[in-house]
Amino acid sequence: MKTEDRKLAIADYKKRAAVAGVFAIRCRASGEVWVGQALDLEKIQNRIWFTLRMGSHRNVELQRVWSAHGADNFSLETLEQIEDEELAYVRETLLKERVQHWRAQLKASAI
User: Fold this and answer.
1) Euclidean distance between CA atoms 31 and 36, whole angstroms
2) 18, 24, 37, 13: which is closest to 83 by C-alpha?
3) Could you tell me the residue range of the domain that residue 92 belongs to?
4) How many domains does the structure of the chain reveal?
5) CA distances (Å), 57 to each of 44, 62, 64, 77, in order?
6) CATH no. for residue 36?
7) Measured between alpha carbons, how far is 106 from 100 in angstroms, rounded to an integer?
8) Is the N or C terminus of the chain more exposed, i.e. has fewer CB atoms within 10 Å?
9) 65 within some domain
10) How many Å apart are CA 77 and CA 14, to the nearest integer?
11) Residue 9 pLDDT > 80
12) Taking residues 60-70, what's their average pLDDT?
């Protein structure tokens, strides 16, 4: 790849819009569900899976179940995407409300 093409590709990547939303992590083996929110749904699985593989996830229960059953028993699914919102505080408030809704509906734990 030429230097100019590489710079254009990097610039395009930085310009892309991140999609915020609510997601669920499910363990098929135990049936447990965790619900959380993310400002960038495309990147959240890699971040969570990395911390779980390293054994350093801040949710002790999720880490315990991951260690007991392994990565093959886990999946991440997008529950809801939040429309592009210019004001950060409006987006944060909306995300918090939707996370509470999904946790109640799925009887899920927090991440």
Assistant:
1) 17
2) 18
3) 19-110
4) 1
5) 13, 8, 10, 19
6) 3.40.1440.10
7) 10
8) N
9) yes
10) 24
11) no
12) 97
Q: Phi, psi (5° rounding) for residue 56? A: -125, 20
Question: Order of strands across the sheet with 33-38?
Answer: 74-81, 21-27, 33-38, 109-110
Phi–psi pair at 60, nearest 5 degrees:
-60, -40
Rounded distance, CA 43 to CA 45, Å?
Answer: 6
Closest-CA residue to 20 (of 76, 83, 108): 83
In the structure encoding, which two tokens stand for residue 31, read together? Answer: 């049936």
Predicted model pTM: 0.83
The Cα 46–Cα 97 span in angstroms is 24
Helix (H) or strand (E) holding 46: helix 41-54
Question: Does 7 reside within a domain?
Answer: no
Residue 78 has pLDDT above 90, yes or no: yes
pLDDT(52) > 90 = yes
Q: Is residue 11 part of a domain?
A: no
The answer as to whether 6 is a domain residue is no
